[in-house]
Structure to design on (658 residues):
């Protein structure tokens, strides 16, 4: 038992501290990226290295940044709706990681293409067809199993891609990817743990998990389909197909689930998410994301 | 009711004397210590209500998460919602040290048998509401909660230390948002004033009814659960907030607000206590909506929680088959972070504890 000596107004210094700290936003610049975490670009030279094509690098950063942004938005939709409080905390955590990646990648895209557009210019003021995310991240959440299935596919593939990108010649992309590997590894572990619980839980949960996998599996292929700009920037996601499928198959086998035998989702005139051709789900998602910013052009928030 | 003390060798009077002495000496009561049934019931009710408030409080601000007008604001708001879920976890864990469990408390919340702070029964209509909630609602919560860091019940006091630190961070973030909006466009400034007009009086009501109508205050103060009366805390909040409002450039919607030289504090008008009574009794603008959302999340997630329990049971059965002996019972496994309370849940003799309502 600890002793806690007290005076009448022992709380006062705390109140005073709060009152003094409150006025003015001074010194709060550390929220520039993320929410107080270390800036991964601290000390990284943001000049474009020789031999790196700015337009191609920007295209790659936009693809990866849009993936992270759109999936973050979907994860945010779970807030106050998660099956348990621990999952509220965890899903928000994953959303924050992805949002942090998106902000860095979009900022880099705006630097690399020479337009000087900020993260918010790119997130709030582009049209639907200008978004370069894969369709996997934009489809609605569905139930918890459906969301976990999407997360498992995305996190497994993205973790592998970030591993490869952590050696990219662009120091900024390499730094974002290096931090992203650690974050995505946790996302993959989280999704794996729930895939096992649901797959090997009750008969109902197993059926839901299988249904979730069946629904998102046709969207997996797009993660391995290289875009010409990616290839020119030295990124080839096609090489990830084998190892990622092997890893996913192992998880599903342990969970007593079946690898879905379904063809990839059809594209339109050979074009899909990376070309700005999306599902019907992206429009409403962006309308919601952008509505307030667009109602106040030029305003600062 | 609790019957554990019957089994103890120490005479009841000696236990009660010891409890009184510990409280009077400003020391902490810990979960294994003897405590009066009414003390336990008061704490369970208060900690549960506090935990419920954190969880329900995610909804009004969560309303703006998908529409936050910059990615930085979106990240700040999401981190805040995550902190609130974390606070809910610490507080439910603190309540569990008193012999109730989270599922039981959640059931009481969604069936309307336990309350949460009435402030969350108002709608968030613009993004400025996010800032005003940070500034006024979190500010009022801090005034209420800082003294709880010295509460006589150890697990609650320790949970409050961490929660207060994060709440003060939230308050500053809210204020910083409002400062940014006030430096912005006319529309943004109007948004801030409108939000202040709507949230000011409900914020004052967060301290509870006037002292004359707060019959439990004296007992809670004697037990060192509560340190200041409702009216004392309300005055402290007003004194703290008025200069901040001036610095911000907004008008607090109270024509009776004026400096009292003699007292060295601000005089202010009387909140509409009949409104507080109505909101507490379920007739606020969002009562039904808030509870319905929490209930839907709980019910929609039932099959997920059942799956986790079934999975954990299978793994335990496998382990005991391998090691040849049965494992003790465990909580269902979940992948999220568990709240570090520094206390192990004391299940057992107190499971029939009343919640004191």
């Amino acid at each position: 038992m600890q002793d806690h000596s007290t005076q009448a107004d022992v709380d006062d210094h705390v109140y005073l501290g709060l009152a003094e700290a409150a006025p003015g936003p001074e010194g709060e610049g550390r929220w520039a990226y993320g929410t107080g975490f270390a800036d991964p670009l601290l000390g990284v030279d943001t000049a474009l290295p020789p031999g790196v094509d700015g337009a191609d690098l920007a295209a790659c950063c936009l693809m990866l940044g849009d993936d992270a942004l759109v999936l973050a938005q979907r994860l945010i939709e779970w807030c106050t709706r998660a099956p348990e409080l621990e999952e509220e905390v965890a899903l928000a955590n994953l959303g924050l990681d992805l949002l942090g990646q998106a902000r860095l990648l979009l900022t880099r895209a705006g630097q690399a293409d020479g337009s000087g557009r900020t993260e918010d210019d790119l997130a709030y003021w582009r049209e639907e067809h200008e978004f370069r995310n894969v369709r996997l991240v934009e489809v609605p959440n569905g139930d918890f199993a459906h969301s976990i299935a999407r997360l498992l596919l995305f996190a497994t593939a993205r973790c592998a891609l970030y591993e490869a990108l952590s050696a990219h010649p662009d120091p900024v992309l390499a730094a974002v990817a290096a931090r992203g590997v650690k974050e995505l590894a946790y996302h993959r572990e989280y999704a794996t743990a729930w895939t096992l619980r649901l797959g090997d839980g009750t008969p109902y949960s197993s059926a839901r998990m299988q249904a979730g996998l069946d629904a998102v599996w046709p969207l997996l292929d797009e993660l391995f389909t290289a875009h010409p700009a990616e290839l020119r920037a030295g990124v080839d996601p096609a090489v990830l197909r084998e190892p990622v499928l092997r890893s996913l198959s192992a998880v599903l086998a342990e969970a007593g689930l079946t690898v879905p035998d379904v063809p990839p989702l059809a594209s339109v005139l050979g074009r899909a998410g990376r070309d700005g051709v999306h599902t019907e789900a992206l429009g409403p998602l962006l309308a919601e994301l952008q509505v307030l910013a667009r109602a106040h052009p030029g305003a600062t928030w | 009711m609790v019957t554990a003390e019957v089994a103890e060798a120490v005479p009841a009077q000696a236990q009660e004397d010891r409890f009184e002495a510990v409280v009077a000496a400003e020391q902490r009561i810990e979960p294994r210590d003897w405590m009066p049934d009414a003390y336990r019931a008061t704490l369970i009710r208060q900690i549960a209500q506090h935990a419920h408030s954190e969880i329900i409080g995610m909804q009004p601000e969560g309303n703006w998460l998908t529409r936050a007008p910059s990615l930085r604001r979106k990240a700040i708001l999401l981190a805040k919602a995550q902190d609130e879920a974390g606070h809910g976890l610490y507080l439910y864990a603190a309540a569990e040290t008193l012999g109730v469990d989270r599922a039981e408390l959640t059931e009481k919340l969604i069936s309307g048998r336990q309350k949460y702070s009435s402030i969350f029964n108002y709608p968030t209509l613009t993004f400025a509401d996010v800032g005003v909630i940070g500034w006024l609602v979190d500010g009022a919560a801090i005034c209420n909660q800082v003294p709880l860091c010295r509460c006589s019940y150890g697990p609650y006091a320790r949970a409050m230390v961490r929660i207060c630190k994060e709440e003060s961070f939230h308050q500053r973030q809210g204020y910083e948002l409002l400062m940014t909006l006030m430096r912005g466009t006319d529309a943004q400034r109007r948004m801030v004033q409108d939000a202040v007009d709507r949230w000011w009086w409900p914020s004052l009501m967060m301290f509870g009814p006037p002292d004359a109508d707060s019959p439990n205050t004296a007992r809670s103060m004697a037990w060192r659960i509560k340190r200041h009366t409702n009216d004392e805390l309300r005055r402290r909040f007003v004194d703290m907030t008025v200069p901040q409002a001036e610095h911000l450039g907004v008008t607090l919607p109270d024509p009776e607000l004026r400096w009292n030289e003699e007292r060295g504090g601000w005089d202010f008008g009387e909140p509409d206590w009949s409104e507080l009574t109505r909101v507490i009794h379920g007739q606020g603008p969002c009562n039904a909506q808030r509870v319905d959302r929490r209930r839907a999340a709980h019910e929609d997630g039932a099959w997920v929680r059942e799956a986790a329990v079934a999975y954990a049971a299978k793994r335990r059965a496998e382990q005991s088959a391998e090691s040849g002996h049965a494992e003790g019972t465990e909580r269902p496994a979940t992948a999220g972070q568990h709240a570090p309370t520094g206390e192990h849940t004391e299940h057992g003799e107190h499971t029939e504890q009343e919640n004191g309502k």
Notes: The radius of gyration of chain A is 21 Å. Chain A touches chain B through 78 residues (CB under 8 Å).
